[in-house]
Amino acid sequence: MITTSSENLPWQPIFTIERSRKAEVTVYGIVSVVTGDDNFADFGRPLEQRYRALVSHGKTDFELWTRSLLKPWQLLSHMDILKRNYPDLKDEHYALFMASHSAEPCHLDALETVWKIAGISEESLRCPQASPLCQESKDLMKARGEKPSRRYHNCSGKHSGYLAAMKAMGQKPETYLEEGNPHHDDLKEILAYFTGRPKSSFTATTDGCQLPNYALSTFEIAGIYQSLFNLENKPLPRAEWRHWGKLGQLMHTHPRYVSGLGRLDYKIMTGETFPGADFQAIAKEGADGLLGVSLITSKFPNGLGICIKLSSGFDNKHMELILREILQQLELAPPKKKEVQDVRVDHIKTHFHFQLNESGSCTKTLPLSTTVS
User: What DSSP designation does 78 have?
Assistant: First the structure.
């Protein structure tokens, strides 16, 4: 059990903002950045042998709940079933099955299409009732006098994929939330294969959407995210896992169906956050301060995987600031252009407490007084 004792906490200071030389804000968390070696897809080897840590800040071996970062692997556990039984499903529907969507009109239209193709209904969903994240849908909901419903929950796409698969397998739909369902055993087998851990080692909890969720370290999350963009045509031990190499491309091609306009992961995938940068990216936000990123770039031909965990929960501004610093240290993104303004800001300084190790093995925590950028 974690106590409030600082030596038992996995977090380290990531950056500090000073105003007139006095610390005003310090953000804590964990940062893992990895790249694969030439044989990273040799899944018979331990994860530590297949990936090189470029940044390792905080306790990167500390296991934490994966939350929505798990969604691509949740889809993989039944994607082959969906492909074989519902040929009318389109790529954007599979992107929606991995989504934490904002319930924009396009998301809701796609949900209706999925339900029609699979012969399921909103009444069978077991995610909580919710209101849309999208303001347009909120206004329409209010104008129609609607109450919160399951279709508006950001995980309703994922739950619809589970229901469709359960129906195709002839299983009772109401059992899809149960951790003991063979469906979730398949998911643990997938995680065990790609992380090199025993299937019995995965700890389970109930996620906010009510599906089982499993704990991984930030190092493991960074590693498996790196491979999302890099496993096309790689041989895998089970034929039904052959869609693995397509997951990243589905996310990259349909970012709006994975997220929503204005969301950080959407802006990363569309290039809005880092215009002109020389890489392709997929990204996924997770509840309570998680971000997973996979990059394809010529500088790192075996790809990059990034996992950031903020101890205080999700903050778009802080998360973007950290990711920008990582990419600048890796020389993959230029500094953000400062807007010309008539207010004084030269007394405000940001100090980062992690630094890329030249050897690429790991980094050490820098003192609070050190200015990295």
Answer: T
Q: What share of the chain is helix, strand, coil (3-state, %, to 5)?
A: 40, 20, 40
Q: Are 300 and 35 in contact (CB under 8 A)?
A: yes
3-state SS of 13-77 is EEEEEEECCEEEEEEEEEEEEEEECCCCCCCCCCHHHHEEEEEEECCCCCEEECHHHHHHHHHHC
Q: Please tell me the predicted confidence (pLDDT) of residue 367.
A: 39
Token pair belonging to 330: 């890796």
285: containing domain: 6-352
Give the domain CATH number at 152: 3.40.710
Of 7-16, 263-272, 348-357, which one has max mean pLDDT?
Answer: 263-272
Query: What is the DSSP secondary structure assignment for residue 244, as one 8-state letter?
Result: H
Other C-beta atoms closer than 10 Å to the C-beta of 28 total 18
Q: Residue 186 CB: number of other CB atoms within 10 A?
A: 17
Q: With contact defined as beta carbons under 8 Å apart, do 263 and 68 qualify?
A: no
Sign of torsion over alpha carbons 96, 97, 102, 104: positive
C-alpha–C-alpha distance, residues 61 and 218, integer Å:
7
Residue 371 falls inside a structural domain: no
pLDDT digits (tens, 9 = 90+) for 33-67: 999 888 787 776 788 888 999 999 999 999 999 99
1 has a pLDDT exceeding 80: no
pLDDT tens-digit series, residues 126-174: 999 999 999 999 999 999 999 999 999 999 999 999 999 999 999 888 8
Answer yes or no: is 372 within a domain. Answer: no
Residue 43 lies in a domain: yes
Is residue 97 a contact partner of residue 75, using CB atoms and an 8 Å limit? Answer: yes
217 in a structural domain: yes
What pTM did the predictor assign? 0.92
Of 108, 148, 127, which Cα lies nearest the Cα of 256?
108
pLDDT per residue over 75-86, tens digit each?
A: 999 999 999 999
- Which among 285, 291, 279 has a CA at the least distance from the CA of 332? 279
Number of compact structural domains in the chain: 1
